[in-house]
Specification:
Alpha-Beta Plaits, 425 residues, 33% helix, 2 domains, alpha/beta
């Protein structure tokens, strides 16, 4: 192990260069820009290291088109004899930069031990760490059983349907092909993430009747109906959510309770309105709800309490009509703390830091949901470099030391899971 770690230390320049190369490809999702060149960068790098490489386009998945193909890369390196397979899965898509940057979001500048750029933390630094870990094992000539896989997948930021969900449907995340999965999400380099809260995205529409704005009494304002629904949320639902706490080790502290975010609201004039308004009573209003729920809450209950508020308004308010449309839903996930991948990564973190790691759950979902749900593979965690609070922020960065330390943890965990070696071997 020590020789392997020294090899990783010698690859710092390569790790920085690879992270920079990945950041400089603006894989913004939506719409899904530059997926193919980013996948090819990873694929050619791993092919040069002796991996067998395949590209899998998520044809027919949301957003896939000839202009924006959902290009995934999966690479596999067989060991000396048959055995288990450890798969490192990282998503290549990033969110848009947004406002507030003090440097080029795609410049990948290095300063004070940090690499700056959109996706540096979430999660191109983690992808680089997994590749460096595998390259170090191969360069050091450490024999291993089974196989190591590394994938770069798309669309995690918008649900993962064209990436891990698509590949899982084709058997890429199921036994006997794969036994263990590590997803290098940025959840701090000395923590192991064993799951996440559930999510329900829904669109609620309230309906009215169009009329001239000077005579609103001849119409029925859908925006006012939506206001009544929002009032119900404030008075009835938000206090109830605040009282619900989970036994899951969710971070940060505020995410231990149920939450509801009103992600958007629109009524009346069209989204691209620019100029003088027309004099109309709006006959439609829409909100998008982002409901994060706990493992203790059944999904049916989560949905039913929203419908109950709407049904009550239907009885209370003359003319109140509504529709609810499901957009996305996923149950919470929780990996057994005694699972092999949890134990292997935890032991390696303890060896690196001299203390036991914190075991956490993520406040938001990530691609573990598809590994669990479609792949039916339960030996899956998130572990990687980066600070969770920096994800999606201006001036996002990844610490170089964190990349290198996580690469050591990943390499050590790989030998533990494939060969049964320990942190002190």
């Amino acid at each position: 192990m020590q020789k392997l770690f020294e090899r990783i230390d010698g690859l710092e320049e390569a790790a920085v260069s690879l992270t920079q190369d990945l950041i400089r490809i603006p894989t913004v999702n939506p719409p899904g820009d530059a997926y193919t060149p980013c996948a090819e960068l990873i694929g050619e790098r791993l092919r040069a290291a002796g991996f067998d490489v395949v590209y899998e386009r998520g044809e027919g998945t949301p957003g896939d088109s000839d202009k924006h193909p959902r290009t995934n890369i999966v690479a596999r390196r067989e060991g000396r004899r048959p055995g288990p397979c450890l798969h490192f899965n990282g998503h290549i898509d990033v969110v848009e930069p947004g406002e507030g940057w003090t440097r080029d979001p795609y410049g990948a500048e290095v300063e004070d031990g940090r690499i700056y750029g959109r996706g540096s933390c979430d999660m191109k630094g983690g992808i680089a760490a997994s590749i460096i870990a595998a390259e170090a094992i191969l360069q050091e000539g450490v024999p291993f059983d089974g196989a190591i896989e590394i994938s770069g997948t798309v669309d995690e930021e918008t649900g993962g349907y064209g990436g891990v969900a698509y590949l899982a449907g084709k058997g890429f995340f199921s036994k006997p092909r794969v036994d263990h999965v590590i997803i290098p999400e940025p959840l701090n380099v000395d923590r192991v993430c064993v799951g996440h809260r559930g999510v329900w995205w829904a669109e609620v529409c309230t309906h009215g009747h169009i009329a001239h704005g000077s005579m609103p009494f001849l119409g029925d304002c859908a925006v006012r109906h939506m206001g009544a629904f929002l009032d119900k949320l404030e008075s009835d639902l938000y206090p109830a959510l605040a009282d619900r706490q989970t036994a899951m080790p969710v971070v940060p502290e505020g995410a231990k309770q149920s939450t509801l975010n009103i992600a958007s609201i629109h009524g009346g004039l069209p989204d691209n309105f620019n100029g003088l308004p027309s004099s109309l009573v709006p006959d439609l209003c829409k909100v998008i709800l982002d409901r994060r729920f706990l493992i203790e809450e059944p999904l049916d209950q989560v949905k039913a309490e929203i419908v109950a508020l709407l049904d009550a308004l239907e009885k209370e308010r003359p003319g109140f009509r509504y529709d609810v449309r499901d957009i996305m839903e996923f149950e919470p996930t929780l990996t057994d703390l005694e699972a092999p991948v949890v134990q292997a990564v935890s032991d390696q973190i303890e060896a690196q830091f001299g203390h036991k790691p914190e075991t956490i759950c993520s406040p938001g979902t990530y691609d573990q949901k598809h590994v669990f749900r479609i792949g039916q593979l339960k030996d899956c965690i998130a572990y990687g470099p980066g600070i969770l609070d920096l994800a999606h922020q201006p001036d996002e960065y990844i610490e170089i030391d964190a990349i290198m330390t996580s690469a050591k943890v990943m390499a050590g965990a790989a030998l533990t899971l494939l060969n049964g070696e320990t942190a002190s071997s």
